[in-house]
Design a protein that fits this description.
Blueprint lengths: L2 H4 L3 H13 L2 H15 L4 H5 L3 H17 L6 E5 L3 H4 L6 E8 L4 H11 L4 E14 L2 E7 L8 E10 L5 H23 L1 H14 L9 H15 L3 E14 L2 E13 L13 E2 L5 H8 L4 E9 L7 E10 L5 E11 L1 H5 L8 H12 L6 H12 L2 H6 L2 H14 L5 E7 L5 E9 L5 H15 L6 E6 L4 E9 L9 H12 L2 H13 L1 H10 L6 H6 L2 H12 L7 E6 L10 E9 L5 H10 L2 E12 L5 E11 L7 H16 L10 H5 L4 H17 L5 H10 L1 H15 L9 H13 L3 H16 E4 L14 E5 L14 E6 L3 E7 L4 E2 L1 E4 L6 H15 L6 E9 L7 H22 L3 E3 L2 E3 L17 E2 L7 H10 L18 H4 L1 H16 L9 E6 L5 H6 L6 E7 L3 E4 L5 H13 L18 E4 L5 E2 L2 H7 L5 E2 L1 H10 L4 E4 L6 E2 L5 H4 L9 E2 L7 E4 L7 H9 ...
Parallel strand pairs: 24-26, 25-26, 25-29, 30-31, 30-36, 36-39, 37-38
Antiparallel strand pairs: 1-2, 2-5, 3-4, 3-5, 6-7, 6-11, 7-8, 9-10, 10-11, 12-13, 13-15, 14-15, 16-17, 17-19, 18-19, 20-21, 21-22, 22-23, 23-26, 27-28, 31-32, 32-33, 34-35
Helix pairs in contact: 2-3, 2-5, 3-5, 7-8, 9-10, 13-16, 14-16, 17-18, 19-20, 19-22, 26-28, 27-28, 28-29, 28-30, 32-33, 35-43, 35-45, 43-45, 45-48, 45-52, 48-52, 50-52, 53-56, 54-56, 54-57, 55-56, 57-59, 57-60, 57-61, 58-59, 60-61, 60-63, 61-63, 61-64, 62-63, 63-66, 65-66
């Protein structure tokens, strides 16, 4: 048989090749046979791990040993083969055994290795049949293939753990040697022992036996059964029992020994054992009448199976029935004795039957069968060894506990006192390793056993698990308290769940307890049970039960009882419903509370109804020093953490203060809010830096909050803060770092500057609000960024932060949804500056708000984004209204639970701004909910307000500027085509409306954030219609523009394109040779191309000055395409949108000849319209409240007035641009007085020149020298400031209580309201402000920006006086009508002629106002004054040509003719030309009154005398006198007034010489004749004037003095 056939393995083929190559031919065949038999059954894995040479070496080594071992001998060798020594190697040690073949060899050798704790890696063992000759082995085959005569040997090749020590190797050799000897002796004597037993069975019936015959029969049957291969005989010996001196001795008959008992070892005693040395039970058993002794020896078998050796003793009796000896057999019961039913085994069958019979149960009944089943399944050794009583007790005990959750213990003592057999029954559910280990421990303790308790566990279909424990003892003669042991075991078996159930019942009562026990049955994982005591689990369960979908998080923060004193360890358990908590979410939160997590254990809890909960158990250290108050801070911490989790409290280092002090999370939020505000007003210290400060000084944090509480808690009576300041100052002494000191002092400043807070207000649920608002007085905060608002509200919440700045008590401005989280206040401050100057047209001063959303969703798209924006806006609005006073029935009502540290302050209006246009209705609904006095006037532009887009009001207002610009360059843009570049798209309000305001707009290019639109040669009419179509769509972009209508070479391009090819037309339009450009490049070129108009209706800043950097502009998105003002080649820029150009950019553009105002001038229409809406609503809402109007009627009325409100707004826009244009008429001539005005504003603290980009003194001096005037953008700012200052100054009773000026209030409202409700207007809450605003606007629009300041300068008058005298002049001279008749000539008369007329008018009005300031009767009201002078003016106006000397009349006529030539109507031209002359009506009226003469006579005398005495010529000289400085200007004005006064005095003197009937001519001639001598001197002086061109101021002084003397002399003549 070749190896190749047996195992087709290349490796083995190689071994065969090696054998044939190396072994002598005579033996090669036999060696191959040997290798075949040895390796045939080797596993593939074992094979693959080895190489051919080592396999060959092993086989050869064994072959050689086989040859050397004589027949019947044993070869045993343990060694470590090495290449050098043995010619082959192995990583393991090798055991070679060659031994005559016999049973039990493999088991016994394996057991020996196990006993020594050695692992066998490979064990090849093959029984072989060999044939030998003289020279050695000649043939090797398997046993089953050989004839009987051959020699049978067992060959072993075993690889074991490598043994390096020689001692160990020797010990192992000895052990195996001795086991082999044992096997040999038991196997060799087996037949003899079996024969001995058979012989005994035969003898038994014949021997004396005092016992029951049945017992004898059963014993014989049992022994017969055993001898029939059911017992492996290992040894036999006969013993005799001899009486000796009152004792009995058991004497072995050594000669009879067989098998293992025949081993002659030194340890074996030759003499007998005295029975007195036995235990009682053993002694009793040795001498009683039972025939068989069945037990176990205390030693484990070394042969065949490692079980305890079974012991069968057969007693011998004498005739008297005394025991005289014993035949003892030892061995092992065969496995079939254990596997078969006891009913098939003699002796056992009878035992079982006796137990059943004794039970008294009906055969075949359920219990009977159950009892039988129990007996059959008892451990077989118990059945064999135990007596019927024990068995009966056991079986019945088990029967009683079937299907009940109990634990039962049965103990049986071994008859020889060497062990106790314990059976423990417990329900399967409760059985686990821990219980088994506990039971072993309890039994060992109880029975005092030093050895390991052995066990065997048995499970069947029954609900019980049975474990059989063998407890070895020296002597089992002891009292066994089974009940006590059982109780201990029951306690050990009590599962965690049992204890939990008990704990639940005692904590919550049986009903609730049972409910929870069921719900949480099997809910907790093993690790939880190991970690958590059942009593603690009850608390956890209560926490879990409290969770629901609303409140998914529960927690427990505590200091573990195990913690040592002053230990800073704490525990936190988090309970969460449904999904697990992510550590990455929680850890940073805990860190921010000053907690360091040391370890964390997560547990999943799944209840019986399928709910899932998660418990996270953290062990942490507290970083704060003070751990005594952990118990006190439990609630505070838990509330705070759950608020952080719900995002109701911010997750940052401020939370450390909660554990470090006695503050709650909400109180700490006060400090956080102040820190956030600090960040907005001053970015010196970062938030984390401030957090660290309080980390170092938690007591100061505590004191600061206490101070805040003392100041604002409405429940406290005292508000003195001194004590806190004292304590804080004391603590500050301990603060070493200057930064910390500055931070804490900044907090003191902020608390000091806080006027109100809503901190103590509760929401509808009675809980603290989720946001906090603070009202500040910025002037109390040091180092605030300029300009300083009057009031400021800061709103803080984890969701939103916002700020609202107001520059006065009555202020308005939009709220912006900002995205500048770090510095939104800076953005708002920039906007409010623009708002300030814009609001000069309207009643309120500037205000602006801005808010940022801090928790914007990342999912859910645009919809979710806007929803969150609206929610934040709501919070912001509420926060503002929370701390604002209300007006109810005309009375001020203070907000609830707000302590006010300021006076009444009820005016708060908001408006929509970028990003919040649709939010006005939201704001108004909140206003109504708060029952705020403004109702839906709170936020203009809501659904019941004026829709700016629908009205197009902002664009129309801006278009007035555009029309004026065009008019002033001689173009009527409503009738003449003009080219335009637009920024925006037709969907936008300002752009869309603006591009439809002239049918002559040729829109050649436009761009917005997405597209670039180019139409090089548009068809004006068609493109207008297409734009109108786009505007009418609900949503549109440039893509919707019909490409068919775009002229050749044009198109619509995406801004996201890489590059845009340029058509020939585009190249021509842009004057470029390039063939393509990037979108940014193209837009930049478009901005720079020559067009008539750039109309900005978009968002972004596109023009800056060359002096500014892009970074300074603050609009990063447009850095790449922004151009400098000097690069613009457009003639006009219309600023419909805000911030399209920087102020410096505008100035640069204007300096280069561009026409531009500013954004706040051009787009004032929107805010003006809103303010009209608010003030109209305030008026009407009062009537709705009184029940005079229904809301429906009010809304209808508002709608009906839309057109008129629009007209009012546009008139404001026209007037404002008009005043700038009139100021520009004399250009650089007026620069000096403008500089004076700038300096005046600065001195008053009203203007920060740098902030408004007005030129510095050096720059102004340079402009004076080069004759360059202020540009329109600069004048716009000054106009705004002039109005701003006047609005404030004019709110005084002198003005607002004046009956004539009060009519401004009525005139402010639309005609419809004037007709119906003028009586109601007097009670308007803003009555005074409306009058002041209207008057301020009239003053500046009519008289120029510095009129009032000039009046103050020249006459020392008060602002109110100047305003009153202006009003008198306006009414007397009919200024309003005249101005209207001139402005109505727009487009008919050249703008330059209009401008000149208005300029002259302004000068005349200034003279008239100055006259009134000097000469009016102060006891008269304005009305009385007007009533006196107006008729005189009218009379002179109608007849002035009759009163003048012919030459003067001709001069005026030629002026009239010149104006008429310019298309000025005759009537207008006449008044304008005569205005300077008509000024004298004021003097004439007073002369007529004092001299009691007719106006006609006085007038004629006055004018003709002036001409004859050449006063008129002298006046012209004065007026023509140039002035070099302010004082000279004052002197010139004084000379003029002096001359007027003297002409008046002279006229009086002359008229006094007149009789009742006289005519002017003759009276004058007469008077001149009489006073010829006196007049000589005067005429002589005039002659001197006429000879020289230039006059010194002194000359005028002297001349006037002469004239004065003349008059005095004449008067003296009387």
């Amino acid at each position: 048989m070749a190896l190749k056939d047996a195992m087709p393995s290349v490796l083995l083929e190689n071994v065969v090749s090696l054998i044939h190559a190396k072994v002598p031919n005579s033996q090669a065949k036999q060696v191959e046979q040997f290798a075949t038999c040895l390796y045939a059954h080797m596993s593939k894995d074992d094979l693959n791990a080895r190489n051919d040479s080592d396999l060959y070496g092993a086989v050869l080594s064994l072959w050689n040993a086989l040859n050397k071992t004589p027949k019947g001998n044993t070869h045993l060798r343990v060694f470590n083969p090495s290449q050098a020594k043995h010619g082959w190697q192995s990583t393991h040690s090798i055991i070679e055994v060659i031994q005559p073949d016999m049973p039990f060899l493999v088991d016994s050798v394996g057991m020996a290795l196990n006993r020594m704790g050695i692992t066998a890696h490979m064990m090849l063992h093959t029984p072989l049949a060999i044939e030998r000759s003289e020279s050695g082995v000649t043939n090797v085959t398997y046993l089953n293939q050989s004839p009987e005569s051959t020699e049978h040997v067992a060959v072993f090749l075993i690889e074991i753990d490598r043994q390096s020590s020689t001692v160990d190797i020797k010990a192992l050799e000895r052990e195996i040697q001795s086991v082999l000897a044992d096997v040999a002796s038991s196997v060799n004597d087996w037949e003899v022992m079996s024969a001995k037993l058979a012989e005994m069975i035969k003898e038994l019936p014949k021997r004396p036996f005092p016992g029951d015959k049945q017992e004898l029969e059963e014993a014989i049957n049992f022994l017969t059964y055993l001898n029939n291969h059911h017992f492996t005989l290992l040894g036999y010996r006969q013993y005799d029992l001899k009486r000796v001196e009152g004792d009995v001795e058991l004497v072995p008959n050594i000669a009879s020994s067989l098998g293992l008992m025949n081993k002659h070892t030194k340890a074996q005693p030759e003499q007998g054992l005295l029975l007195s040395s036995f235990s009682d039970s053993a002694r009793k058993e040795a001498l009683d009448h039972s025939l068989l002794i069945l037990t176990k020896s205390s030693a484990k078998s070394r042969v065949h199976r490692p079980a305890y050796v079974d012991y069968i003793g057969i007693k011998r009796f004498d005739k008297k029935g005394n025991v005289i000896g014993e035949d003892r057999f030892i061995g092992l019961y065969a496995s079939n004795l254990y596997n078969r039913s006891p009913r098939e085994i003699p002796l056992l069958n009878e035992k079982v039957q006796r137990v059943l019979d004794r039970s008294g149960l009906t055969p075949r009944s359920h219990d009977y069968k159950a009892l039988l089943n129990i007996l059959e399944n008892l451990p077989r050794d118990e059945l064999i060894q135990a007596n019927v009583d024990d068995l009966s007790h056991m079986a019945h005990g088990v029967l009683e506990m079937q299907d009940r959750d109990k634990l039962k213990l049965f103990v049986r003592k071994d008859g020889f006192g060497r062990f106790l057999s314990c059976l423990v029954y417990v329900s399967k559910d409760r059985y686990n390793t821990k219980l088994r280990q506990d039971t072993q421990r309890i039994l060992a303790q109880h029975f005092n056993s030093k050895e390991d308790v052995e066990f065997t566990t048995y499970f069947s279909e029954s609900t019980l698990a049975r474990t059989h424990y063998i407890v070895k003892v020296d002597n089992n003669n002891m009292d066994v308290d089974v009940a006590a042991i059982e109780n201990n075991l029951i306690e050990a078996a009590r599962s965690w769940e049992d204890k939990l159930s008990t704990a639940l019942n005692s904590a919550l009562g049986e009903e609730a307890g049972t409910h929870l026990t069921k719900r949480y049955f099997n809910a907790f994982e093993q690790s939880y049970k190991e970690d958590v005591l059942p009593s603690s689990a009850v608390v956890d369960m209560q926490q879990l039960e409290a969770l629901d979908d609303e409140h998914k998080l529960g927690m427990l923060f505590y200091q573990p009882q195990e913690a040592a004193l002053n230990d800073n360890k704490v525990r936190l358990k988090l309970f969460h419903k449904d999904e697990p908590i992510h550590l990455s979410d929680v850890l940073p939160m805990l860190e921010n509370f000053g907690l360091r997590v040391i370890n964390e254990r997560p547990y999943e809890v799944t209840t019986s109804d399928g709910s899932t909960f998660w418990i996270l158990d953290f062990l942490m250290t507290v970083k704060v020093v003070n751990t005594d108050n952990i118990a006190d801070s439990q609630d505070r911490f838990q509330t705070a953490l759950s608020q952080v989790w719900q995002k109701k409290l911010e997750d940052d280092g401020f939370n450390r203060i909660i554990l470090a002090s006695g503050l709650t999370g909400r109180e700490v939020s006060v400090l956080r809010a102040y820190a956030k505000y600090m960040r907005q007003i001053d970015a010196t210290f970062s938030q984390s830096y401030i957090e660290e400060t309080f980390g170092r000084y938690p007591q100061i944090a505590d004191l600061l909050v206490k101070m805040f509480i003392r100041k604002f808690n409405p429940k406290l009576k005292t508000r003195t803060l001194g004590k806190f300041l004292e304590q804080i100052n004391l603590r500050l002494d301990e603060v070493s770092s200057l930064d910390d000191d500055r931070i804490i002092r900044r907090y003191l400043d902020l608390i000091n500057a806080t006027l109100r807070t809503n901190f103590y207000q509760l929401d509808a649920k009675g809980e603290s609000k989720s946001y906090i608002s603070f009202k500040f007085m910025p002037s109390l905060i040091p180092e605030m960024p300029r300009p300083l608002p009057k009031f400021e509200i800061f709103v803080y919440s984890p969701r939103v932060e916002g700020v609202h700045l107001r520059y006065g008590k009555v202020a308005r401005g939009g709220l912006r949804w900002s995205d500048r989280r770090e510095d939104f206040r800076t953005e708002v401050l920039g906007l409010v500056k623009a708002q300030q100057v814009k609001n000069t047209v309207i009643v309120p001063v500037g205000a602006k708000g801005g808010f940022v959303c801090k928790q914007l969703p990342t999912e859910g798209g645009r919809e979710a984004f806007f929803t969150e924006g609206q929610e934040c806006y709501r919070i912001f609005i509420r926060a503002l209204l929370d701390i604002t006073d209300n007006i109810l029935n005309g009375e001020i009502v203070h907000p609830l639970d707000v302590v006010r540290h300021d006076e009444d302050d009820p005016y708060l209006v908001v408006a929509a701004d970028k990003g919040t246009a649709t939010f006005s209705d939201i704001a108004n609904s909140i206003s109504l909910e708060y029952r705020f006095w403004l109702g839906d006037a709170f936020a203009s532009g809501g659904s019941n307000g004026y829709d700016h887009k629908k009205m197009g009001i902002t664009a129309k207002g801006g278009w007035e500027s555009v029309k004026r610009h065009f008019r002033e360059v001689g173009i009527d843009c409503q009738t003449t085509d003009f080219t335009c570049l637009g920024i925006g798209d037709m969907a936008g309000d300002v752009f869309g409306n603006g591009m439809l305001l002239s049918k002559h707009t040729k829109l050649v290019a436009a761009f917005n954030h997405m597209h670039i639109f180019i139409d090089p040669n548009p068809d004006t009419a068609l493109s207008y219609d297409e734009r109108a179509r786009l505007f009418a769509l609900p949503r549109s972009s440039w893509e919707d523009y019909s490409s068919k209508l775009i002229s050749k070479g044009g198109g619509i391009f995406l801004r996201s394109s890489k590059s845009i090819p340029l058509s020939a037309e585009m190249k021509q339009m842009l004057a470029t040779e390039k063939t393509s450009m990037t979108p940014t490049e193209l837009m930049k070129e478009l901005l720079k191309m020559p067009v008539d108009l750039i109309w900005n209706g978009g968002i972004g800043t596109y023009v800056k000055s060359s002096r500014e950097t892009h970074a300074e502009v603050g609009d990063r998105a447009n850095d790449a395409l922004r151009v400098n003002g000097g690069e613009l080649r457009a003639k006009i820029v219309g600023e419909g949108g805000n911030l399209g150009c920087t102020q410096l950019g505008r100035i640069e553009y204007a300096s280069n000849g561009g026409r531009i105002n500013t954004d706040f001038v051009d787009n004032v229409g929107g805010v003006d319209c809103s303010d009209n809406e608010v003030n109209i609503k305030i008026l009407l809402n009062a009537m709705v409240t009184e029940g005079e109007l229904t809301l429906k009627q009010r809304n209808r009325l508002l709608e009906e007035m839309t057109e008129e409100v629009g007209q009012i707004v546009l008139q404001d826009c026209k007037d404002q641009t008009r005043t700038i244009s009139v100021t520009q008429v004399r250009g650089a001539e007026q620069l000096k007085e403008q500089i004076r005005f700038i300096q005046y504003l600065e001195k008053e603290g009203k203007l920060d020149r740098a902030l408004e980009f007005l030129p510095s003194d050096d720059e102004l001096a340079e402009r004076l020298a080069s004759g360059r005037a202020l540009t329109r953008p600069e004048l716009s700012v000054l106009v705004a400031y002039a109005k701003m200052v006047l609005k404030e100054q004019l709110v005084t009773p002198e003005i607002t209580e004046d009956t004539l000026l009060s009519q401004l209030l009525i005139a402010y409202f639309p005609k419809k309201l004037q007709e119906k409700y003028s009586d109601k207007m007097a009670t308007h809450p803003l009555r005074g402000e409306i009058i002041a605003t209207s008057l301020a606007n009239e003053l500046v629009n009519d008289m120029g920006l510095n009129f009032v300041q000039r009046m103050q300068d020249e006459t020392g008058a008060s602002v109110a006086d100047a305003a009153i005298c202006y009003t008198m002049a306006r009414e007397v001279f009919g200024l309003a009508e005249l101005t209207k008749s001139i402005t109505d000539l727009n487009g008919i008369v050249p703008a330059v002629v209009q401008g000149e007329m208005l300029h002259q008018l302004r000068r005349n009005m200034r003279r008239a106002s100055r006259w009134f300031l000097r000469h009016r009767n102060r006891s008269w009201s304005i009305e009385q004054t007007v009533a006196f002078f107006k008729p005189v003016f009218e009379q002179i106006k109608d007849n002035v040509h009759l009163y003048l000397v012919e030459e003067e009349a001709k001069g005026i006529q030629s002026e009239i003719n010149a104006l008429v030539k310019e298309n000025v109507p005759q009537a207008v031209a006449t008044i304008v030309a005569n205005m300077s002359t008509l000024f004298s009506a004021l003097d004439i009226a007073q002369i007529a009154q004092t001299e009691d003469k007719t106006v006609a006579l006085v007038a004629e005398t006055y004018f003709k005398l002036g001409a004859r005495v050449e006063l008129h010529w002298f006046l012209e000289q004065i007026s023509a006198q140039p002035v070099a400085n302010h004082w000279q200007a004052l002197a010139r004005a004084a000379f003029r007034e002096e001359l007027d006064w003297q002409q008046r005095a002279l006229s009086s003197v002359v008229l006094r010489t007149c009789s009742a009937t006289c005519d002017a001519e003759s009276v004058i001639s007469q008077w001149i004749e009489i006073n010829q001598g006196l007049l000589e001197r005067w005429f002589h002086m005039l002659a001197d004037f006429k000879t020289s061109q230039i006059h010194e101021f002194a000359k005028f002084s002297v001349a006037l003095r002469e004239l004065n003397l003349l008059i005095l002399h004449c008067e003296g003549q009387k």
